[in-house]
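Figure 3 (text version): structure tokens given as input.
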């Protein structure tokens, strides 16, 4: 399974979401108004990246079920 290119793309997408989440939490933890704005921007990026990751996971599951 780990040699499947679509699985690797899904894994990378999930790791990107995790990285953005950690950036947002770290920025929020520093405090201050500027960091709050940056944290909010990171969390918006996380939502977009998470939507892409979920779509890729659904595509992966679809192709695994149909045998493709």
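Below: residues designed for each position.
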């Amino acid at each position: 399974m780990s040699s499947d290119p679509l699985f690797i793309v899904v894994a990378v997408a999930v790791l990107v979401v995790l990285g953005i989440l950690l950036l947002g939490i770290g920025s929020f933890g520093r405090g201050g108004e500027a960091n709050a704005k940056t944290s909010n921007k990171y969390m918006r990026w996380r939502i977009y990246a998470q939507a892409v990751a979920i779509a890729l996971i659904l595509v992966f599951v679809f192709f695994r079920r149909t045998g493709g």
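Helices lie at 5-30, 33-66.
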